[in-house]
Amino acid sequence: MIRAFTLIELLVSLLIISFALVISGNLISHAIEHRSNFEARSNITSVEEAIFLLTADVENSQMLIGKPPVDLSLINEKNLLRIVLFKNVYKDGQVNFDTIYVTWLFDGNHISRTVSDEKQGLILVSGNYTFDVLSINDSAYRISIKMPQKHLSFILSPGVALL
Amino acid sequence: MKSLSDKPAYILLETLIALSVISISVTLFWYSAMSQNVNQNKLEFHYSEVRLLRDIELLVQIDNLDALDSVGYFPLKIAKTSDSVIEYFTYDGQKRVIFLQELSY
Fold it and tell me: Scanning every residue of chain A, which has its alpha carbon at the shortest distance from the alpha carbon of B5?
């Protein structure tokens, strides 16, 4: 005859199950919170990378004849910031040299970078944010990006070369 | 040879092994999440620090350091202690000092 479970065995089983339920419940809620937190912070990292790339673009921009190296235009009515700059790049051929223009667009939902006549720009950041542009002097601007989790500022100064 | 009726219904050893495996998995998961958090902190500090140093250098060159937005470099805590010194704290709590005279050309 098969022996039945005793009361103490059932109680121990219930205790273990209740521990397992509590731990797994905590773990799942922590995992969900961690995931949402990590996604928000990844978005901040994307913005930082976009700023890093933009400042590198500006530092490597070149003045064309009759054109400033960086044209920064703020279209207030559409909440758009467009930054156009000219860069010299390597290209296969006899001269091995070409000039491209790079357009950065801040529209409150995305930050995108378009090279020359590309139809579709590369979207570097997706997510809601607001921005503010402060003109420091004729050739320097402070751009502030406000996201729900963080506020970032950076200086764009096309006329100044870092040594 | 033991018959079926001789086997105990409750096997403590197997339960303990199962619980050990679960606890090891949970611990590994927990450490992985913590490590991800620490690395993300380091990355944010690094980007903010690079941005801060670059911006200070630019602003010193155009002689307009007042335009520095001290709250725009979080998680760095920035304090301008005098006209020639800016201090900030890194992710591990170390204080770093920037001497502005060294940046002016």
Answer: A2
